[in-house]
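User: I'm preparing a small set of examples for a lab meeting where we compare how different chains pack in three dimensions. I only have the primary sequence for this one, and I'd like the structure in token form so I can line it up with the others. Please keep the answer compact; I'll paste it straight into my notes.
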Amino acid sequence: MISVGIIGGSGYTGKKILEFCNNHPYVDNYSIYGNSTAGQSILTVFPALAGIIDDTKILSVNEISYEHDLYFIALPHGEALKYVPELIANGKKVIDLGGDYRLDFETEYEKWYKIKHSSPELLSKKFYALADYFPASSYEGVDLIANPGCYPTATLLALLPLATEFAKDILSISVSAYSGTSGAGKSPKPEMLMAEMHGNVRAYNVSKHRHQPEIFQALEKQGFGSPFSFTTHLLPVAAGIYATSSVHMKCEVTESEINEIYNNAYKDSAFVRLRNTPPDLNWVVGTNFCDINISAKGKTVIITSAIDNLIKGAAGQAVQNMNKLYNWNEKLGLLNTGVEKCISL
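Assistant: Understood. Below is the structure token output for the 345-residue chain.
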């Protein structure tokens, strides 16, 4: 059993973490820390959780207790830098859901986030934990997990098996990805109003989205170095990520060949579902699944992938990473199938 601190627990992602921890058989207790919501009742902030969780007071981020074993940090970029170094120095385990520790080099972070990194020494010590791609052995000795972003999760789960096998044979990769508006957080923004987004689709941050270097960094580690483009769009829905990756190859490949690679890559995955047709977004919204379909013709491979941005792209993967960090069944809290299925305690 462990105790958990949720820093930034009053946002969309924090709410999901709270629900998953409340449903987790090995989370003994948890505390929620907030900023503007400090001092309020959690059921005042999230009245929909009445009857589901016990009411509790949201504590101030200025009074974080070091009594917990693990801390989830669900804060805007730049904010985690205030808390992570001290938590690590106090021997705590941290899963950061923001972008502050995802990139490997402070120069890249400062280039894309326009913030000076105050603890660059931790960048080389973090584990970038794409939960469904890395084995449990990768988590041994890990204290700081950089939880992948929502777009990178959908994109990398779709691309990494192919890039690992054919890195030198790929001429280029072009990704068009679409997100629901909850990816922008709870802060009010005029362009996110229903009157603006209803029936509308809009590209944004073209050629400058902060998830682009995160995706390329992971692909580069597999030997990929060809041209790469990544274009994001907003959908008139609350939740979900849909990514279409177009991969142009030097050589012809067959669907059966590619599907065999993906079946081998995800044969032990609890949450990646390989589909015979391009997935619908509503197949995954509200779940921790990533659905993937592969179409290959000649020298072109088209891969479509879909996830829930708040769950698989944030809170769900974070809880999955917690489970793998403690060598528990990775479904716990997400798809409880019985405590007896735990790997070990």
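A couple of notes for your slides: The first strand starts at residue 2 and ends at 7. Confidence is low (pLDDT under 50) at residues 337-345.

User: Perfect, thanks.
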